[in-house]
Amino acid sequence: MVKIGSGTNRNLTDYELSRYACYLVMQNGDPRKEVIALGQTYFAIQTRRQEVADYFNQLDEDNKRLVVRGNIKQWNQMLAEAAHNAGLICSSSDLI
Fold it and tell me: pLDDT tens digits for the chain (96 residues)?
């Protein structure tokens, strides 16, 4: 039972939706509603993640290795910057 605006109680039924059904509800919902906007953002991020994973899986082993090395380099630079901003003194060679 859920209390509604007039103070009366009303029975609600829970529904379990598939992932695809949730996607359709989110894409066709009103983005001015916070829950719809959050759902649209979630599905946009998941779609992009899948696109990146598909692209990565199409690479040969040498190119995969180059992508991973580039990612590690970028993360190390971000780590060094965060350490610097926190007042730690370290060089990039300390992170290797």
Answer: 656 666 667 777 888 999 999 999 999 999 999 999 999 999 999 999 999 999 999 999 999 999 999 999 999 999 989 988 898 876 656 555
Decide: pTM greater than 0.85. no
Domain that holds residue 85: 60-96
Q: Which sign, positive or negative, has the C-alpha torsion 86, 88, 91, 96? A: negative
- Strands, DSSP E only, in the chain? 2-3, 9-10
Nearest-angstrom CA–CA distance, 75 and 60: 23
Q: Is 54 within 8 Å of 65 (Cβ atoms)?
A: no
Domain count, the chain: 2
